[in-house]
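Example 3.2
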Amino acid sequence: MDVNHNPNAPDTVDPNSLLRPMLYFMMQGEQWDGRYIGKYVQNWATNSADDTWDKMGYQRPPSDNGGETWKLAYNFLAKNLEDYMRLSTEAERWDAVGIGYILRAWGWQKTTDIYGELIIKEAFQPGLTSFNYDTQEFAYQEIQRLLLLAIENLQRTDGGVNTSLMARGDVIYNGSRQKWIQFAYGMLAINMSHLTNKPGLYDPNKVIEYVDKSFASSADDALYAFAGEQTQLSNFWGQRRANANLFRQTSFLVRTMNGGVFTGVIDPRLSRMLQPSPSDSLFRGVDPTLGYANIPVAADRPGTFLGGTSVTLNSPGRYLFDDKSKVPFMTYSQLQFIKAEAALRGSQPTVALDAYKKGISAHIDFVNATNGNVSRGTATQIPAAEKNAYLNSPVVVPINAADLTLTHIMIQKYIAQFAWAFTETWTDLRRFHYTDLVPKTNDQVFKTFAPPETARLDVDNLGKWVYRLRPRYASEYVWNRESLLKIGGLEIDYQTKPVWFVNP
């Protein structure tokens, strides 16, 4: 008997059947770990005091919380992606091969940005029972190599390249090779944009070039859509899954839009993205580790992101908090802010201001689009008059390009990435060491952002801020402890060790 042959099922499958679930798990991984990284970046905090993650801590083993992205790279993609690439290569499906390279690069990018050192060279070698970690610098080089290979393959039109066939598994771009090429260039821009603390590696002109070869408008946004008809087919933050039930908007998040950061200017997105207090319709937020302690009057306390004290199936949706809201992998708005930062660093203030303004405009449109797609309730639109008034405010959009600062750019990028691009937002905050100043203004880059006071940090942090998550317990701490020991992974404060891109 051939134990590798099942007479009741095919021995091989169409690679398209592997693509759809891999894209699903890529989207899910960011959201699962976003529950915790979202607290580090103060997208939200828990409504009760002394939450471990609010304290920039990490739940002790044997918890696997914070390990979903690790699981994505080494379980959900892993051999599935190897099979996908092998089958596609055998069929000369170069479009599928190109997408495969992108998926592998995506897995490594997310994993290294969250955990630092990771396993690449030995990751899928048969027969090994322990695996050595590679440096984050090597990971970044490997990601760039994979993305260039992706573009090379996606540009091919020979062999078995077939848009209609590709569309069967491609739930993002319906088989469009051109859009996946643009996506790859967007990833290259993101990859290099993280290297601002590496003078010999960061090239602002190259970042601009990559962005310009990427998304041309919001029509190119990479979005994952949901039917919203059952739990697994619904948005992670929607009514059915209620995963943000205990999360509340933070004071910092509110300040980015209520005139606290952009002094006196109310962002029209505030009332379309966040929740007012039931007592007086003012917007308030909680502070990490304190829960509701800073809002003593119960009626003043903000509810869930869907309103009310708890999420129900009938909660009115808004923004990304709805069963049918589309979750982005990457957006035109996000890339424009990356271009704006690069142009500012490259002494091209006019280019920077143009990209910055386009980024804000595109995200306001994105808010309208998501609110127009909610499955329950009626989220109000931002009319053109409100949008134009905001964009014409000199506090928000300086009249003179020379007055644009990193604070303008990074705060607007923070708003545009709220509740979906958790890893990218955390990377930004860590690049600026959370509280770095802008020499020109002597303000923090992330103006008014305040990590928890030393006394309120998790005890294992030994008084330091968090800079990485620990690798997944169920694999690394159980089966790969000797290799983990070599990189300091068994130290009590390992989560505070800066990742490679943080320092020169």
